[in-house]
């Protein structure tokens, strides 16, 4: 075969190799795109079809279509939904309702020398009120709150019911963080809704004294809507307060109250 014939054969063979090589490359399995947001994933690592917010560490993957899985946020976070064309996959809330986690610490606070006003319109010294031989429970709420305040207040009410007649030996104090609205009349009506006993005092005052009180208990927030779910407990004669950060169940609240003598 002459040189020209060999060239004619080699050219088609080269084209065939190139063609099959390209098909082989296209046929190779590409790494699957990340279809859900893991705890450390970034937005760039999510598929365009089904993006979801990155959950906090410890998040679990929701049950969803394999190609459109969303990331399930931690229990305390809102439900996360990932819209993908015609299908939505979302993280459902836990089927079981469990007691919210809370953080318990011991802290020493210097009660400020301020004069506040009770739901009866009586002016009282806060430092003198809290200097008592009774166990003290204290929280910060406001009457128009519709989120954590009713839960905190219901916790006081439930504990009061469980203690029965012994509740008279406990001083329960709620401090309003909205003194402009929470007048003695408003606070009295609020306590009546929760069937508060005579051992429960609701305090208001001028803005400066309320803020001084909040700062003294490391509970200050500039915006009342951002206030923290805090409950404070102190045994008679104790130097330190038990600080509960979080929404505590009635059962755990009772345990904390019963443990006061050990702190």
Overview of this protein structure:
This protein has helices at 3-27, 126-130, 148-163, 184-193, 207-216, 250-258, and strands spanning 60-61, 71-72, 81-84, 87-90, 103-107, 115-118, 123-125, 136-141, 171-176, 200-204, 230-234, 241-245. By secondary structure, it is of the alpha+beta class. Residues 2-99 have low confidence and may be disordered. It contains six helices and twelve strands. The longest helix has 25 residues, at 3-27. The protein has two domains: 43-90, no CATH class; 103-262, Glutaredoxin (3-Layer(aba) Sandwich), CATH 3.40.30.
Major sheet, described briefly?
8 strands, mixed
Total strands:
12
Strand order of the largest sheet: 5-12-11-8-9-10-6-7
Rg from alpha-carbon coordinates: 31 Å
Q: What is the residue-averaged pLDDT?
A: 74
Low-pLDDT sequence parts:
2-99
How is this fold's topology laid out?
Elements: H1 3-27, E1 60-61, E2 71-72, E3 81-84, E4 87-90, E5 103-107, E6 115-118, E7 123-125, H2 126-130, E8 136-141, H3 148-163, E9 171-176, H4 184-193, E10 200-204, H5 207-216, E11 230-234, E12 241-245, H6 250-258
Parallel strand pairs: 8-9, 9-10
Antiparallel strand pairs: 1-2, 3-4, 5-12, 6-7, 6-10, 8-11, 11-12
């Amino acid at each position: 075969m002459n040189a020209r014939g060999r060239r004619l054969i080699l050219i088609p063979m080269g084209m065939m190799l190139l063609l099959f090589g390209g098909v082989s490359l296209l046929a190779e399995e590409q790494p699957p795109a990340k279809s859900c947001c893991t705890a450390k994933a970034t937005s760039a690592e999510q598929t365009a079809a089904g993006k979801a917010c990155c959950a906090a560490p410890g998040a679990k993957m929701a049950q969803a279509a394999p190609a459109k899985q969303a990331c399930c946020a931690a229990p305390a976070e809102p439900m996360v939904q990932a819209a993908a064309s015609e299908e939505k996959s979302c993280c459902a809330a836990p089927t079981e309702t469990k007691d919210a986690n809370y953080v318990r610490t011991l802290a020493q606070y210097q009660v400020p020398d301020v004069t506040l006003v009770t739901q009866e319109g009586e002016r009282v010294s806060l430092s003198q009120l809290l200097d008592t031989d009774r166990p003290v429970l204290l929280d910060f709420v406001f009457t128009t709150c519709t989120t954590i305040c009713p839960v905190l207040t219901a916790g006081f009410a439930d504990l009061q019911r469980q203690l029965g007649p012994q509740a008279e030996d406990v001083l329960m104090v709620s401090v309003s963080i909205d003194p402009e609205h929470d007048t003695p009349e408003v606070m009295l009506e609020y306590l009546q809704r929760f069937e508060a006993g005579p051992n429960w005092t609701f305090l208001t005052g001028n803005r400066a004294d309320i803020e001084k009180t909040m700062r003294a208990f490391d509970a200050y927030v500039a915006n009342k809507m951002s206030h923290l779910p805090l409950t404070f407990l102190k045994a008679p004669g104790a130097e330190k307060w038990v600080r509960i950060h979080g929404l505590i169940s009635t059962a755990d609240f009772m345990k904390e109250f019963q443990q006061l003598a050990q702190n």
